Amino acid sequence: MVLIRHRMQQHLKLDPLPELEIDECALCPCFPRPMSGTTIQGVGDFFDLEKLCVLGRGNHGSVYKVRHGQTLAIYALKIIQQGSNDAYVSHETEILNCLDSPFVVKCHGIFEPRAGEKAILMEYMDAGTLDTIFRDNGPFSETSLARIAYQVLNGLKYLHEHDIVHLDIKPSNLLVSKDMKVKIADFGVSKIVQGIGTRADTNHHNMCEGTHAYMSPERLDSHTFGSGYVYAGDVWSLGVTLLELYVGHFPFFPADKRPSNWMELVLVVCFGEFPSFPKEASEEFRSFIKCCLEKEPSKRWTVSQLLSHPYACLGERLGK
Which domain of life is it from (predicted)? Predict the structure, then answer.
């Protein structure tokens, strides 16, 4: 263990990333007048959008609930603040512009309200995120998670078929409607990859972007687990997300314990024991999670394989 710790300290440069902070929906001041000529097809001028409240704040800006003045349609508007990483902005806008799936949040257009600032107009999901629902109501049932798993898998299938790896699947990046439609959001650290099959070529340094608690072993320690299985990382993140929402806490530690530092997190995720299940967990749920959380990426089930799993099939039936 000492040797492992020493080697990983040499290779890992992990800085904590702040989580999304959810605020109360409160009245907000008006937007600044946009640059001349800035419009979105079907919506009109940026200045026609009225801020209603703040939905959340993250690393690169804020998300607002807005109303279009002429049609009264409700949208979510993500304002990416000046000074944000240019790569973050370009990745998210480039990817959102080419996506069209019922399992991925829809982008209605992109503004430049003022020099150096970007605004992304997206569909509004009226129940918030899986994280907000979890915080308000506690752990999810197996049946609810089956419906969620099926929808997220379909979203990932669409992304992977279009050579996109999300890299930051977690409860706060999965948006929900009141009728439990679930859509993948936030593509700021996502990548368009090149390659064939489950292996693809991409810059490993960029693969370390995202939320470390949901990263797969191969993303945390590519020297031990390999660096080519980029799509498999999304499957791991989904498995951690579902198990966390089921047991009510980050599953690799007891409910009353948090990692004291990033090294402890990495050692537990990469080399620790498999998380334990509550005794009431069904065999189908246990099997599905184990297929997602296989530490060896070449043995981890793919999205297509998971869609044929009995637990995902249950989710499909429940959603009809």
Answer: Eukaryota
